[in-house]
């Protein structure tokens, strides 16, 4: 264990990966199965969003409501996801990753069943909030377990590979949701999610070990102090905020996509999933490039590269749409490059935000996720309130969030060079 930084009177240690015991030897960091298990946990989040996107117009009619209230069902999910982030990390740092994973996934299973049985949009919104609370443990603690078992140097590459595998979820989910709607009603989407959550619980119970090396205090004062250390860090906040803005741009696109493509541009619901294939392939390609380049280039350089690509992509969407307002390609082609940029930005931002705080990795991941999901919840409601008959509110929202994100990336990279001139991921070994 090597001291690497002293921030605001708190000595932060750079720890080697935990030693493996007979229990956690079931999870070999060099195996493909390990990455697939972790990707299955992370996929709880995108599946819960992407599968019900094609059902939103049908649900709007079934509940006799408007676009704003349907966007509230997504925003409620994101708020549940965001709020429990703040408790999820400290709980996992105190009691272990596995108990929190099992409890949260169990809640996800029950809330998904509640969504399927909802009789009003208000009931659906309530259950979606609960579903978000349960779903947040998968992505949050999968990232934490990745940091636990792969160490600081391997985390960026592992997160990129997990992101590439996880991209199978949004590749399949919208198409599967749209195909299901041809033969069954919208509640079947949530029945599927409940079954998937049950399978994930079995995986957690039998294949995911406990990776917490040193339990942390659960006293409110200590938790607040840990969060304060993160918020005061000159690199964490701008990088986490930049990542949150990029992700919020994606969520604005997803929240509007069902209404934009199905209602405004006339895409048949059964073909809705094909719209996302180019974006998914872009994301997988970006994640693959991120994983390959992570061993050769600094994290901050790859993050900035992704930010530039995302900015160019989203700024090109506006003139393309104005030139061809009824064209689907004018939206999905720029989105393909934006998605590729996400494959670079999200894992590199996560690795950059976590690299100096191994002892509070779950708390770090929780605050990172809270900023990401909380900002997305606000933006999805805002864009839903002005989305009527044109994709322009969606496009403008994405452009604004991405330009702000790029400015924060540039600032965060400058702060990283100033306060951490020696890059730990490329200079320190994984073991003492």
TrEMBL record:
Key word ATP-binding present: no
Q: Where does it reside?
A: Cell inner membrane; Cell membrane
Entry superkingdom: Bacteria
Database matches in SUPFAM superfamilies = MFS general substrate transporter
Query: What is a biological process (GO) this protein takes part in?
Result: xenobiotic detoxification by transmembrane export across the plasma membrane
Question: Which residue windows are transmembrane per the record?
Answer: 35-55, 67-88, 100-121, 158-180, 186-206, 235-262, 302-322, 328-346, 367-388, 394-412
Q: Name one Pfam family in it.
A: MFS_1
The molecular function terms of the Gene Ontology recorded here are: sodium:proton antiporter activity; xenobiotic transmembrane transporter activity
Domain (Major facilitator superfamily (MFS) profile) spans 34-417
Q: Which UniProt keywords apply?
A: Cell inner membrane, Cell membrane, Membrane, Transmembrane, Transmembrane helix, Transport
Recorded hits in InterPro entries, A to Z, give: Efflux_drug-R_Bcr/CmlA, MFS, MFS_dom, MFS_trans_sf
Question: What's one GO-annotated cellular component?
Answer: plasma membrane
Q: What membrane topology does the annotation report for this chain? A: Multi-pass membrane protein
Describe the family membership recorded for this protein in Swiss-Prot or TrEMBL: Belongs to the major facilitator superfamily. Bcr/CmlA family.
Q: What is this protein called?
A: Bcr/CflA family efflux transporter
Q: Per the UniProt entry, what species is this protein from, by scientific name?
A: Congregibacter litoralis KT71
